[in-house]
Design a protein that fits this description.
This protein is an alpha+beta fold and about 150 residues long. The chain has one domain (about 20-150). The chain has helices at about 15-60, 80-95, 100, and strands at about 65-70, 75-80, 105, 120-125, 140-150. It has a three-stranded antiparallel beta sheet. A two-stranded antiparallel ribbon has the order 1-2. It is rod-shaped, with a radius of gyration of 29 Å.
């Protein structure tokens, strides 16, 4: 239905205005999808690296030796050393094949036993998210830190 005095035809200066809006919305939508994909890829890779770090920390916490603390009664306590934690972490990473699942996986020098009873494992890797790799060819570095404590119970 047309109003009296109005032509149903499109004016020449308004032709193609909707096309510009549609193209603009499509570009914004593609940008949002790309960012969500990149963030999701980094998040998932970080969770995978954290899982490896947790397993390595548990394996390292089991590499304790027993020290006897004298006092009123001799009390045996677990004792961890930095070299033992690092060696257990390296063995765990090799045993699980984690080096093949991550790019530039490395054990950070902060890996060790800060208080002698807690195994701290710090792993670093690089993530190459889809599509965004063009913008960041070196990748995005991620770090995972996991702690596990040795306890003796009866």
């Amino acid at each position: 239905m047309t109003l009296p005095g109005k032509s149903p035809r499109i004016r020449e200066n308004e032709a193609g205005q909707v096309s510009v809006l549609i193209i603009g919305y499509l570009l914004v939508s593609l940008l949002v999808v790309t960012v969500v994909m990149a963030v999701s890829a980094v998040y998932i890779e970080h969770k995978k690296l954290l899982s490896v770090a947790d397993g390595a920390a548990l394996a390292a916490a089991d590499s304790f030796s027993i020290d006897v603390v004298s006092g009123r009664a001799a009390v045996p306590l677990p004792s961890l050393s930095r070299p033992a934690v690092q060696a257990a972490t390296e063995a765990y990473v090799q045993r699980t094949g984690a080096e093949g699942r991550f790019t530039v996986l490395s054990i950070d020098p902060a890996t060790g036993a800060p208080d002698g009873r807690t195994a701290r494992v710090v792993l670093t890797a690089v993530v190459h998210p889809p599509v965004v790799s063009i913008l960041v060819p070196a990748g995005i570095p991620i770090t995972a830190v996991a702690d596990a404590r040795s306890e003796l119970t009866r």
